[in-house]
Design a protein that fits this description.
Layout: E1 5-10, H1 13-26, E2 34-39, E3 43-46, E4 63-65, E5 72-75, E6 79-85, H2 88-91, H3 95-112, E7 118-120, E8 123-129, E9 159-170, E10 173-181, H4 214-228
Length: 231
């Protein structure tokens, strides 16, 4: 069983957000899940926990407050944005598992392009080694079973962030989603603390030497999400 994918192309952010909210508010236990894939014109989005001091120098780029989790990030042309609209209660897994599955879809997408994606303890999203994006060696800062209750302090040494995650769950149903950087102007990330982390480097597939198109990356990510988010 897989989830239908709808490719929206270049989509207005505010209109897409409203459509996700309307879809989620109106859905019933019988409403099929969906995955929307698109790209947006350049803008910053600020999550519900977002602090304005992470917006260092937005300049003329619009800043939109939104109701997803997380801090500030940037969306722009050349980035694949995927919005899974999933009924978790029907799917039979919880939010933590959902996040893991979305991240796994990104990792499998990168693997199909020859790149090794990594998780970092305490920091949602997917990262690559800057010195060797193709290395399979495990990261020392990967999530591991830990003693005590204090959350780990994320360590981004030697890493670049290639995919950002920000989700919202309403009545057990997800919206917002994940953004994979394919071939972007990365300079806007330098005018924020990406996802709230000062100095975190952001990369895309083109800067680490992976020749692909938006369409190919969108198809790969859509397929992986469709498979991995199914019940």
């Amino acid at each position: 069983m897989t989830i239908p994918i709808q490719t929206l192309g270049r989509a207005d952010y505010a209109a897409t957000l409203q459509a996700m909210q309307d879809f989620t508010a109106a859905r019933t236990s019988d409403t099929p899940d969906a995955i929307w894939i698109c790209e947006h014109d350049g803008l910053y989005t600020q999550g519900v926990a977002g602090k304005s001091d992470h917006l260092l120098d937005p300049g003329a780029t619009p800043v939109v407050a939104t109701n997803r989790g997380g801090q500030v990030t940037y969306h722009g042309p050349g980035q694949v944005v995927a919005y899974p609209l999933i009924d978790l209660q029907r799917a039979g897994y919880f939010v933590k598992e959902y996040v893991y599955r979305v991240e796994e879809a990104v990792i499998r997408t990168l693997a199909a392009l020859g790149v090794t994606g990594h998780r970092v303890a305490g920091a949602p999203g997917i990262y690559v080694r800057l010195d060797d994006p193709y290395s399979h060696a495990l990261l020392p800062q990967r999530p591991q079973k830990r003693e005590g209750t204090a959350p780990p302090v994320p360590d981004f040494t030697g890493l670049g962030k290639i995919a950002a995650l920000g989700i919202k769950v309403s009545r057990h149903c997800t919206y917002h989603g994940v953004a994979l950087n394919v071939d972007m102007d990365l300079s806007p990330f330098g005018r924020i603390n990406p996802c709230g982390y000062a100095g975190l480097q952001t990369v895309d597939l083109s800067t680490i030497g992976v020749p692909t198109t938006w369409e190919e990356a969108a198809q790969l990510l859509g397929q992986q999400l469709s498979i991995r988010l199914a019940p």
